[in-house]
Design goal:
heterodimer; A: two-stranded antiparallel ribbon; 11 helices; 2 strands; 73% helix; B: ABC transporter involved in vitamin B12 uptake, BtuC; two-stranded antiparallel ribbon; 14 helices
Chain lengths: 291, 324
């Protein structure tokens, strides 16, 4: 009994991180209708930046978050304006391949710069843990889960209450109508991309603390983000949270009870099952653009 | 070209004969490059039956290479007593059949998705097949499979497989050509242009998509069986390759998406660039492929054939302008 509760708790922690890693992907897809296959690269970029900052400045890795997010915000804005914008109105396959090309180039660059070896970020409290009843929690994992949830709430509030959020939501709903009302759509696209990149970077820090990472991991994080978005629904932090928690629980349960070598199989079967039963995602409308 | 089928077939067969004689004068390295070119071109044309004609761009066709190769290898391993000349046809039959069953089974859920969702879901299919193949011991994915030497003793194996790829490539090409000029091909084209309208006008879109998917998968699987024999020994990693998944899209993109000759031109060009021009820059491969992809999407979304077409249009416009 304890084992299953422990597994579920681990799954929730992992799921919170999946959700944070996927929310940027979801936002870009909801607003720009672009599948950003370089999303995993942005996540890793955040992890590497945090690794460099926290080791050179000797501060807690979670404290590097504002700096990392600021850097990735700028990178994301420039990336969208210079490259994605040129392909955004073409076929969806075009923009997808463009981001894939960028992902390949950046992955190669990362291998040159950071070496292909596994790296990890180790905060000072890496080995601390506490018990709640019979369930044990690592201090690291709990702080990372809290950071993820706080960030997701921040994004939800940003989208719901701020002027920028209102403009982003308007553009996602009806690009033409938003343009007619005086919204500078290119600027909004770039800002959306920048916000997504910043959140990808933030999730990179959390991932770097919990799991080892290497440049070859970018595909995994992109694929995870895709699955989370399909499960939860496009464009909302709540959808990403639901999808992420579901994915986290399913992957820890299969690792515990079926075997650690089948992560993709269960993930994919879950996906197919959901497509057959509820093609629009658990929340929202995952497949409107696909139909 | 399409008006005179007999002339078209004659031209294709003529090209094939010229290519078939090429190994007599080519140095061994270029015979290997030629092998890879013909194999890639065959795969690219098989991919384009679904991805180009019907617009369902698959990102996971390496699944069928792997399933075909492993199905053939596992059966051939149990038939070691038979003469090698019989093993290859049996292997191709088994591999093709396995791909047909797999593709027919996944077609129902997968083909409900469109566009990028379909592409990524196919990537998922490929990863799942690779993972199952790798982790179920009977399938020997992580251990590896040996293939019998099927080349006749009198032939250099490299030349034998070159000719085999050529023959398979020509067959795949002619099948794709027949599909393109048939009523079925017109149906696929209408699905690519506007699936909902096509369905409304009475095109049996579901059935057409499924047939195209299975045909594309089986042809890919057959090429995968030949590929496995030419390697002699395969593991999961050597057939379920993500760079194959990507390359199949890039071939069509480079040559011209949705055309018949585009994938062939694209495959020949890309294999030449990566194998001959960039042969010494292994560290640079990922970067170069990525750069090529970015430049293609931004500068030439219609591929080489698209560039030729727009150049022709411009020349015609320039030629007619002074007359007016």
């Amino acid at each position: 009994m304890n084992l299953i509760i422990q597994t579920l708790a681990d799954g929730l922690v992992l799921g919170g991180i999946y959700a944070l890693a996927a929310v940027g992907f979801s936002l870009i897809f909801g607003v720009l209708h672009v599948i950003n296959l370089s999303h995993g690269i942005l996540v890793l970029l955040g992890a590497y930046l945090a690794l460099i900052l926290s080791t050179t400045l000797r501060i807690d890795p979670l404290l590097t978050m504002p700096a990392v997010m600021a850097v990735l915000f700028v990178v994301g804005y420039a990336y969208q304006r210079l490259l994605i914008q040129r392909a955004v109105d073409r076929s969806p396959l075009g923009s997808m391949l463009l981001t894939f090309g960028v992902a390949l180039m950046l992955q190669n660059t990362m291998i040159w710069v950071f070496s292909p070896d596994m790296k990890s970020i180790t905060p000072g409290y890496a080995l601390a843990s506490f018990k709640l009843g019979a369930i044990s929690f690592d201090a690291v994992r709990v702080s990372c889960l809290l950071a993820s949830l706080v960030m997701l709430c921040c994004l939800a509030a940003l989208l719901k209450f701020s002027a920028l959020g209102r403009v982003i939501r308007a553009t996602a709903q009806q690009t033409l109508a938003a343009r007619l009302c005086g919204v500078n759509v290119r600027h909004v696209y770039a800002l959306t991309f920048a916000v997504s990149a910043a959140f990808a970077g933030a999730s990179g820090i959390v991932i770097g603390i919990i799991l080892p990472f290497s440049p070859a991991d970018e595909g995994t994080w992109t694929l995870n983000a895709f699955v989370v978005v399909v499960l939860g629904g496009v464009g909302s932090p709540a959808g990403a949270l639901i999808g992420g928690l579901l994915l986290g629980i399913v992957s820890t349960l299969t690792a515990q009870y079926i075997g650690p070598s089948f992560p993709n199989v269960t993930m994919f079967l879950l996906l197919v099952l959901l497509l057959l039963v509820r093609p629009q995602g658990l929340l929202g409308n995952a497949f409107a653009p696909s139909r | 070209m399409t008006q005179k089928p007999a002339a078209f077939v004659a031209i294709i067969l003529g090209c094939a004969v010229v290519l078939a004689l090429a190994p007599l004068i080519l140095p061994p390295f270029y015979v290997r490059v030629g092998q890879l070119m013909l194999y890639s071109a065959g795969l690219a044309v098989a991919w384009t039956i679904l991805g180009g004609f019907a617009g369902y761009a698959s990102f996971g066709h390496a699944a069928f290479i792997g399933v075909g190769a492993f199905a053939a290898g596992l059966v051939e391993e149990r038939l070691t007593g038979l003469p090698p000349a019989l093993l290859l046809p049996i292997g191709m039959l088994v591999g093709g059949l396995a791909c047909a069953i797999l593709s027919a089974a996944v077609a129902y859920p997968i083909l409900r998705l469109r566009g990028t969702f379909f592409a990524i879901a196919m990537l998922g299919v490929c990863h799942v097949c690779a993972e199952l193949n790798n982790n179920i011991d009977v399938l020997q994915g992580s251990l590896g499979l040996n293939f019998p030497a099927v080349a006749p003793a009198a032939w250099d194996p490299a030349v034998f497989f070159y000719e085999l790829y050529l023959a398979a490539g020509v067959v795949v090409f002619l099948i794709a050509w027949q599909i393109q000029r048939s009523r079925f091909g017109a149906g696929l084209l209408s699905i690519r242009e506007d699936e909902d309208t096509a369905r409304m006008l009475g095109v049996p879109t579901e059935r057409y998509k499924r047939i195209a998917f299975v045909a594309s998968a089986v042809l890919t699987g057959l090429l995968g069986v030949i590929y496995a024999h030419s390697l002699g020994y395969i593991t999961t990693d050597s057939v379920y390759r993500d760079d194959t998944n990507l390359s199949l899209i890039v071939y069509s993109l480079l040559g011209g998406m949705g055309t018949l000759f585009g994938p062939v031109i694209g495959a020949f060009m890309l294999v030449f660039i990566t194998q001959v021009v960039l042969a010494r820059l292994l560290d640079f491969h990922l970067f170069a492929t990525g750069l090529l992809l970015v430049l293609l999407v931004l500068a030439a979304p219609g591929g080489v054939l698209g560039l030729v077409k727009s150049w022709k249009l411009r020349r015609r416009a320039a030629a007619t302008a002074p007359a007016e």
